[in-house]
Amino acid sequence: xxxxxxxxxxxxxxxxxxxxxxxxxxxxxxxxxxxxxxxxxxxxxxxxxxxxxxxxxxxxxxxxxxxxxxxxxxxxxxxxxxxxxxxxxxxxxxxxxxxxxxxxxxxxxxxxxxxxxxxxxxxxxxxxxxxxxxxxxxxxxxxxxxxxxxxxxxxxxxxxxxxxxxx
Length: 167
Known about the structure:
By secondary structure, the chain is α+β, with helices and mostly antiparallel strands. It has helices spanning 5-10, 15-22, 25-29, 33-42, 55-67, 82-91, 113-122, 158-166; strands spanning 47-49, 70-74, 105-107, 131-134, 140-144, 147-150. The two termini are 16 Å apart. The relative contact order is 0.21. The protein is globular. 43% of the residues lie in helices and 14% in strands.
């Protein structure tokens, strides 16, 4: 939104959406350090992963591979900011393959999730349970709009691909 505002306007994105999205770098911001510190104190964390490059689904694939596990993800449990949805729809991008700065994937025992979400909420940080790790043979499954499918894979970050095609 900061660098391609004119293109977004041409694609039909409203000025208010562009202005709100343009400040996401600082508000809410992209640092996950405080989030990680809270999680480390509140739960028995198995892993942290910042899915910036390649987006959320790429980050989830990387966590599964590093863990030697499969996973099941509920698409409906994944929050997507309305500005992100509008911009992605206008440009033909998938938000789950889009640069995910400011997100932090945390794996932990299921019984620790409520305590972690409570501690994050107390700190004013939003958190969501979006899925679970499974045995490797269970694969990488997304339960979403198209039913049960293989977790999509992105060869390239959606933003990087867009910018390469735009230039």
